[in-house]
Automatic annotation (TrEMBL):
UniProt protein name: C-lysozyme inhibitor
TM spans (from-to): none
InterPro entries named among the record's database cross-references: Inhibitor_vert_lysozyme_sf (IPR036501)
Lineage, highest ranks first: Bacteria, Pseudomonadati, Pseudomonadota, Gammaproteobacteria, Lysobacterales
Origin superkingdom: Bacteria
SUPFAM superfamilies: Inhibitor of vertebrate lysozyme, Ivy (SSF89872)
Signal sequence region: none
Ranges for region Disordered: 23-45
Ranges of biased composition (kind: Low complexity): 27-37
Amino acid sequence: MRHRFIAALGIAAACAACSQQHDDHAPSASAPPAAASTGPVLATTPSSPSGLTYLYDLMQRPDFSTAFAALSGADQLPAWAKQGGVATPAQQVTVDGHTLLLATACKPHDCPSERILILYDENTHAMSGLFARRKPNAVNNADSNDPANDDLSWLGAPDEATKQLLQHKLYSPD
């Protein structure tokens, strides 16, 4: 019950953030809160006025945008996903001993319907991700933490550990 309240609170905050202009670079709570082992990434590249880095900031970096353009499946994504959408701060996560950036975003003005998570290795420029789109037959108030309500598209060629992390970050409110 507590997790559903937290998820509902996060969705409500995301909806409020969606109503703000994109130029404000205002962070939203559209994605589930990160696990204790992750934290916001301090900006070492162009970022928002808050000093945090968001997906739309990363899209401005030549290394990131080149890797994103080459990412298998990225050409099938909606325009908002290619521009960065409504995002939460990028975080550092660890997969199989490698530290990666995790950037998350959702569709402006309709976060529960489409969400994207991108993992990026700043050293090797390897990238993979997960795109979730609400199933056409799912009701409007369907639980956004229930994988049965989404069609998933893997971006790149993530291994099983990466897939597990991405699904956990997409569906776990903790």
